[in-house]
Structure formats: C-alpha cells, structure tokens
Predict the structure.
Amino acid sequence: MIFNKNTAKKTAEVLLSINAIKLSPDAPFTWASGWKSPIYCDNRLLLSYPTIRNYIKAELAKHLETNFGKPDVIAGVATGAIGVGALVADAMGLPFVYVRPEAKKHGRQNKIEGHLESGQNVVVIEDLISTGKSSLNAVDALKEAGANVKGMVAVFTYGFELSKANFAEHNIALHTLSDYDSLLEQALDTGYINEKELTILSQWNNNPDQWDLK
C-alpha cells in the first residue's frame, strides 16, 4: 500500500531525476536473477543527494509512525537499506540495527548487527521490494531473535503479484512511498516515456519472469 498519491508521484519524480530508477524499454537490463527487465532501480543513489535523502527520510519516518506507531527499534535490510534505515532511526531518535542476508563467517558470526532485545517492537526499512524474498528473510531473522516485527516500510515496490503473495503468507504489512503504477504515471506525464513504451513497461510488470522484448 502506498502512502498517498502525491507522495507516490513525488517520490517517483525524485528517483527518476537522479537516475536511481532508469527506464529502458528498448534496451532491457538483465537482473542478477536472469530476468530481462526494462527498468533498473538503485535507490542507494539517493544517499548522495542531501535534499532528496532528507525528503525520503522525512516521508519514511512519517509513513512509519502513521501506520505502525513509534517502535522500539528500526531495522534496515543489508545492504541497500542500511543507509536510509539509519537516517530514519536518527530522525525518530530510535536505536538502529541491520540484518545481513546470512551470518558472518567470522567473529561473533552475527546475522543482526546492533543491539536488539527479545520482545522489542521493530519496524523494518527497505529501499526496494521486488519478490520480497530477501526482505522477508530479514523479518524471519528478527523474529528468530525474539523481535516483534510490526511491519515494513519501503521506498519503492515493483508491485509483483509474487511479492504480494509472499508478504501475505508471512502476515507482514508492507507500506511504500511509491510503486510501479505511480512511477509509470509520473514518467508518462513528464514525457520520460511515450504511450508505446508505457505498453511495454506494463506488459513486463504483469509477467516479469517470462517477459522478453521481441
């Protein structure tokens, strides 16, 4: 669920403006999964732009407190959401931890970095939701550590049906500043894409694992 339409389009606008999101319907990208995609998203870029990161930080903090109240701890998902998660925790005056995809092979072999006590209320911050698998792995790790995970807030989601099913299966509420539909609407309104490109981008989102540009 997105925060509101104005925020969704404004977030899409700023991410497009710094090329954190790139749309390339005629020359698709190849994701690590092997999927062909007309969109590539790297929201870590927003950390390099103070005005934009402050906007995202403020909106995430507002969105988080509106939907979940003030938790005991903010958790970021490594590595993409460490920076923005720490910014949100600082803005809210809350402790911060982050969750690795797997435990370290050395030292204390932590999967969760930072101080977390069993029973604490946690909200997870993500920069990007695709299938939701890595995000929900982080949720599982926090629950295994005894945390009460209230939900997750993310900057952007592709809105795949698979991710919706995964979050529903885990019974985790997900709220995002922007989503794929809002992105396409903003891109079309500003002339970033045309109607033909809109069709290609919409078709990909409906069947991303099978899509290929002919």
User: Anything to note?
Assistant: The chain has a mean pLDDT of 93. The radius of gyration is 17 Å.
